[in-house]
Amino acid sequence: MFIAKHALGDGTPHPTDGTHATYHHEIRTVLEDIGLNLVLADRYQSLFDRPDVDFVFPLLNRGGFLNSEMLLPLLCNRHSIPYLGASPIIRGMSDDKHLTKMAARDAGVPTLDWAIFRRGAPMEEAKMPKGERFVIKPNASSASWGVSDATDWPGVQAAVAKIHGEGHDAIVERFLSGHDIEVSVITMNGKPIILPTQMNVQADPTILRTYEEKRNLSDGPQRYKMVPYDDPEWLPQIYEYTYKLLPEYLPFDYGRWEFRLDPESGTLMFLEVNLNCNLWSKKTISISAGLAGMSHAELIETILAESLSRNGLLP
Fold first, then answer.
1. Which domain range does residue 137 map to?
2. Does residue 72 form part of some domain?
3. In terms of pTM, does the model score above 0.70?
4. Distance from first CA to last CA of the chain, Å, rounded?
5. What positions does the domain ATP-grasp occupy (predicted)?
């Protein structure tokens, strides 16, 4: 079963999801071209009762409710159906930015100071990290959904209250000027393999990247570009940090580890983990695979074959 919000679409960009609809159609086409016998679904209800399938390729991650990324693997576990990607508890930990930062700090990997404000818990200024500018976002956001910034406690309060009002927990961290380093990882024969690393170079490193920009919903020019990153000064340190973090999430099949680098101050910080990250041919992990000599279709088939093998469905 291939299950995604736009699995039944024709690839036309969606008014609010933008090119995510194009992405889902592309993955469906790749799976069909491989020759798989596909069952298509676009809603969680398709797994409420056990479907007549032996494997699930889940891309229905952003369901519009808290911790929605855990529901599909949970439903698969309920029916004892193997699936692509990490287990529900690992998916939950990776999407919870507070927990990933705690794991990073425990592994000795530096991360920006932060505060977690759970919905329904007291909102206390004493929890705030020190700094002059703060980034506020849903604790399980993706593609910069719901991200904003503030320079004082009243501004932080207002942003957190807005996120709580939409049914989500909020995380606040100190802002670091710079560029995002994207480390794409797949597993082969059970072992993590780091693909060539990318940097998102921002025209203005003090500007927040937006959801609209990442989903190609804005008409203006993109304010960042992705380029291969092979700086001999920083890359060994980035790989060292990534390898320290990887054991917490195995087995996961594919994912992306993100860091923030400010070359001017010489500061490198872990940001977050994105398991089951975007597999669209125009996104980071596919571009990285291309630098390693793999086509987009080969990347998808490799990830899928690894998971099928791990779950005992391939010799």
1. 114-174
2. yes
3. yes
4. 21
5. 101-305
